[in-house]
RNA sequence: GCCCCCUUGGCUCAAUGGAUAGAGCGACGGCCUCCGGAGCCGUAGAUGUGGGUUCGACUCCUACAGGGGGUACCA
């Protein structure tokens, strides 16, 4: 908390340390018992020409208790402070309650919007488990940045162009029309098999793709229809996952512009012909060349991404453009950004590849083709089934059971993906994704539900005296919650939702322990006999509940009141 | 070949260059006269190898080993 850091900086200034430097150096020690706040003195040693330990001793000697700081003690090169915990708790809870829904946000937002592209599936294909990652990570980042005060444009960029569409058309010609997403997906899978071992069919697929590229009326009509059907299928899953887009675009909308773009670069001599293809030399020459147009005259994903980036910059003038895409496309994005730079777009440096690790099965990459890989909906359904079975066993009279099972099952799947750093590969294991024990989404939801339960019994609203919160576990909860805004900010700047996931787990764990201790010792209960203390504890629990609720929502999990 | 990522208990993961490396699963042992046991408390168990930088290294540099990914006309 800033006011406490400043108080320490004042003491440090008395010992000759610049106030702003001291303020920045204050840390929360990893070993909590050691101190409430701590000032490591290493960095001041050079300028002051004294040993860190000597500086620490001077700071401790210069210390006089204030209404915020109770004690200071030099421990080698550190100065360990004990704060007035009552004052801290009061300040934290006051702030939390004042900020309300905005708690955890900061006001450091840029004027320009932040664009986040995520999800981006190919039409005519079902969503497989590995599609979970981009969707859920991207949505969490969009939520986090919005919470921080940024204006966010969340964008789904569909793969709605190319031979996939052509194959689908062949399938429809031979197997009949597909009325819904599932039928469309089946038709596509069948058609790809047919095309794979039949050159004639493959030629027809290419012909369809060509007709679409040339905007032949019939092709466009069929494409629009198939795209809509596919999208409806995606939306069904997105709704379950809490994935929401401000805008759904697709590559097809850039095909014509991509062609014109290549022509223009050629006449301007900024692109060149190589081996029959049109290529661009990126600013960083170690990245090779960027192919803009194939020798058969068609454009590529890369070309359309270039045009799309330029278009988005014109539309939004973004503060940052975030591509939440698999790490396998790292080179693609390096080339994209470096290509933009070579073309003189200084804003290329505001583009960012938010790369996440791949989904493996048994150590191998999931193959989208041969139907290897698991359907995302299948995983969600199984998770919900298991959640329902647990409710049937533990809480059979629960109202709204279906909705709760859905939230718990889906929550487990989402949290299993957001719980670790995104760059790690994940090996898909049913038992791991579907676990509800330990460090899981349901654990967090359960902690939230417990807090709700206590507050239902204790009554609201709560205006207790925070200075009565003297017990060690209460202080731990207060200190933990104080970190929330900082953790949200780190998650945004590092593009790492797991920072918030880890924070919430720690908070939930401390809360569960606090709660459990009250089960043994009546004096430690929130709903204890002393009216004043009870009110103070209820206020603390309300703070925990609010922090958990906001955090869960940011990650895309539903905070449940009962489960 | 070149480039990028990963390597921490049996397994899956944490750890802003900071003090005694922290959890979950699994194992073992406790805890329901309970404000919700999807839980709580406890025990055992880990930084791939060799150099280097630093007051201080899981963290930075370097070499090596093992694993994964990428490497112009797929996305």
Write out key terms for the chains shown:
single chain; RNA-binding; five-stranded parallel beta sheet; 14 strands; alpha/beta; globular
Tell me about this structure.
It is a single chain. This protein has helices at 2-14, 19-25, 45-48, 52-62, 85-99, 131-147, 163-175, 181-196, 199-213, 217-241, 255-267, 301-316, 330-342, 376-394, 401-418, 430-433, 441-458, 472-482, 484-493, 498-520, 531-555, and strands spanning 37-40, 69-75, 78-83, 114-117, 152-158, 247-250, 272-274, 277-280, 290-293, 320-326, 351-356, 359-361, 364-365, 426-427. 54% of the residues lie in helices and 11% in strands. It has 563 residues and is an alpha/beta fold. α8 packs across α10. It contains 21 helices and 14 strands. β7 and β8 (277-280) form a beta hairpin. The radius of gyration is 28 Å and the shape is globular. The model has no long low-confidence stretch (mean pLDDT 92). The strands form 4 sheets. Strands 6-5-4-10-11 form a 5-stranded parallel sheet, sandwiched between helices. The protein binds one RNA strand of 75 nucleotides through β8, β9, α13, β13 and α14.
Q: Could you report the average pLDDT, rounded to the nearest whole number?
A: 92
The overall strand count is 14
**How much beta, percentage-wise?**
5-15%
User: Could you tell me the radius of gyration in angstroms?
Assistant: 28 Å
Shape: globular
Class from secondary-structure proportions: alpha/beta
Task: Give the proportion of residues in helices.
Answer: 40-55%
Low-confidence stretches: none
Q: Which strand order do you get reading across the main beta sheet?
A: 6-5-4-10-11
Separation, N- and C-terminal Cα atoms? 34 Å
Total helix count? 21
